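Reviewers of the previous submission asked for a worked example of the structure-prediction workflow described in the proposal, so we include one complete record here. The input consisted solely of the amino acid sequence. No template or homolog information was supplied to the procedure at any stage.
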Amino acid sequence: MSVLKVNKENFESVKNSSKPVLLDFYADWCGPCRMVSPLVDKIAEENPQYLVGKINVDEEPELAAAFGVSSIPMLVVMKNGEIVNQSVGAKPLPQILAMLEG
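From that input alone, the workflow returned the following structure tokens.
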């Protein structure tokens, strides 16, 4: 599955997904975000059991504010519409997968 571009129009359906959701809050100008992005893409391609989305904080400031994003990249894991895990900063692939599995 490919990464879904999440915005305020489709956020409710993403939030209410039956699958665990990984959200990547990023900006195009952010260096660490560019390091995390290919890892997030890889998770989306290799793990169809997850819904993976990216939220550009410059284009979706309301969603970023709703999640209290103060630093990027910020990764959020949601299950059943609730935040169950989150982390700020670039992380290696095994740590991101551990967030999803935890």
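Helices lie at 11-15, 31-46, 61-66, 93-101. We consider this example representative of the routine output the project will generate in years two and three.
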